[in-house]
Structures are given as structure tokens and as C-alpha cells.
Structure of LegC family aminotransferase:
Amino acid sequence: MLDSLIRFVRNQYRTNEFIPLHAPVFNGRERELVLDTINSTFVSSVGTYVDRFERDMAAFTCSQRAVAVMNGTAALHIALKLADVLPGDLVVTQSLTFVATCNAIAYCSAEPLFVDVDRSTLGLSPAALDAWLAEYALIDDNGDCRTRVGHRRIRACLPMHTFGHPVELDSLITVCERWHLILIEDAAESLGSYYKGRHTGNFGRIGVLSFNGNKIMTTGGGGMLLTDEITGKRAKHLTTTAKIQHPYEFVHDEIGYNYRLPNLNAALGCAQLEQLPAFLESKRILAARYIEFFKGSEFQPIVEPEGCRSNYWLNGIICQDSKQRDELLQTTNNAGVMTRPIWALMTRLPIYTHALRGPLDNAEWLGARVVNLPSSVLPESIAS
Ligand SMILES: *Cc1c(COP(=O)(O)O)cnc(C)c1O
């Protein structure tokens, strides 16, 4: 089985060289647009590509407003600040995520509160959240959600769309409304993923994208906040040193951040975004082939949840147990075909071992079994 998997992956990428998990593709106008910023000298914090990238991304995702920043982690930090997450607050999230989700909470001097994920989405479970809150939380006289013991405010809920598979948003929105939690989506992995026809990142107050080098499209490093006009205006202000517009004076009306995306990176983003539909198409072709390949095997491919259209950023399978997983990891990596386990649960990291949590049975179960497979855009889909 493992030999035939290695052969299968090599066939997709038509190479005997090392096959990475995810490599970017620059086969559009990247060179042209990046060179244009260099020729213009506007490579840094001012320039037309930032505005254009924001407009194009808002149009692609059907968001009211998109605000570009230097990476996805910075976008998460600002999103939580805009949700008024204060020191000492708790923010609900999943333990099965990339560390940036939790770090952004810590940057606000708040703490994560971990609830379990669903096996069908790999993302935050609305039922697990509701059950935890029913047992351990209350709504106080100000309408704030607080823990019964310690009276700590639970301000927001930050689910993550794992590998581009949307969480169960309808139920999650209901639970967040019931418990007065502000919903913020970590959509870093789900650009091009839709829940019931609507782009992920548009369901809460703010959604966050990442354009790191390993994501479905890249700006080198970059991120984006998707939100409404008013919040977007605040986000722009806060991420550009909170400077009041003036022809020559320097007036800053609060402590802002220099989180701007440089024009150079935005130019790369504009060129990548032009190709995103082709990337998405290629990833669906590859995902369908993986699903077909694993049909009837001991490995269960991870497929898009019902009612969703996933971007299949990273393909994954669920092994029967951790022994089988380790065997697969070892054999494929030894053969130069890169595979990876899912992240260590955040609750296992020393920095978050003390965090509050509910039962994490599904996260533990998936954590021991999930493996990601090479998922770059297929060579046949790359225009020459
Ligand atoms: C990539 C990613 C981020 C943001 O990462 P940056 O490298 O800061 O752009 C945040 N959350 C998740 C789940 C991610 O995968």
C-alpha cells in the first residue's frame, strides 16, 4: 500500500526528486508586477498594489472590506483587539490548530479556552462549546459571558477552518449568539473555501487570511482581515500606526501597530490572486484522485463537510492508529515524499498546558491519526 502511495504521488508530480508538502507556483504575472513596484520605487508602506490587493480580495471573497497586513498572525492579533479582547479575558478556540491562533490570544494578554473539535470538520465543535458553557458559564448582568468559578469574561470564539474544511458555522453562530460571544474566524487555511455558498471568513465579525509561503497563494508573508466597512476602517487605522491623515504633521491618536503589508508583497499577491481559481481547480482534481486512490483502503481520506466546498489546501488521511501513522510517515519521508502529522495539540505545549479546557477526545483521536499528503498545484495545471 505505501509503495503504491509513493508511486501514486510521484505520478501526480511527475518527478523522482523530493516532493514537498506544498510548494508555491509563480507562473502568472508575478515577475511583471513585482518588477513594476521596484521600478516605481514604491516597494514599502505606500503604493497602489496594496489598495488593489485589498479590493481584489474583497471582491473574490464577497467581503465588504479587506485590510492587508504583514502576516496572518498580525491579522489575528488585530482582529481580537477589535473584538475588544482585554487582559484576563478568555477566548474559546480549538486545541487542534497551528500555534498562531493561540499566540494571537496571548498577545492580548488573554488566554485560550479549549473545546473539542468535530471529527467530520476537524474544527471547533459547536455542541462541545455549548455543553462546556452550559456547565461552567453564565451570562452576567452586563450581558457578558463569564465562567461560574472565577467570574472570568469569555469574550470571543475563534474557530479555525482546518486544512480549508469549514467548521459547522450555522450551529456555531447559534451557540455564539446564545452565549454573547463575538465570532472571529481563523480562515488562514481556507481562502477559496465556502460554507453553504458563502466564502469562509465572512460569518463572524472578522475573518483572517494568511498568505504565508505554504498557503494556497502567497505574498511571501502576508495576511488579511475580512470584515465590514466600519470595522475595516478601524483595522486600517490600527495597523498603520494610528496616524491621522494630514499632509505633513505626525499625529497618532492611539497606540497603533506597524502591521502594514509592503507594496512589494501586495504586488505578488495581486498576481497570485489572478491564478487562484486555477489553483483551486487543480486542488479539487488532486483531492478527487486521492479519494479515489484510498477507496476501500485502511486509510480514510478527509473530505469536505456536507454543504461545503473546501479549497483542499492540504489533503489529509486518517490512519487507523498512531502506529500505522508513524509507519506511513517514516516510509514516505524516507522515499522523498513529504508527509506530516497534524500539529501537536496546543494543550500539549508547555506554554498552554495550564489553559482551561473541556474534554478533547476527538482532538486527541485525530491528533494521533491524521497525516497530510503532498498537495501542491499539479504540474499539468500550471500554464507554460
Ligand atoms: C498560517 C496560519 C496562520 C497565520 O500564519 P502567518 O504565517 O502568520 O501568516 C494562522 N492560523 C493558522 C491556522 C494558520 O495555518
User: Anything to note?
Assistant: Residues 30-273 form a domain with the Aspartate Aminotransferase; domain 2 fold (CATH 3.40.640.10). The first helix runs from residue 2 to 13. The pocket of pyridoxal-5'-phosphate is lined by residues 71-73, 97-98, 100-101, 160, 186, 188-189, 210, 212, 223 (CB under 6 Å). The mean pLDDT is 97.
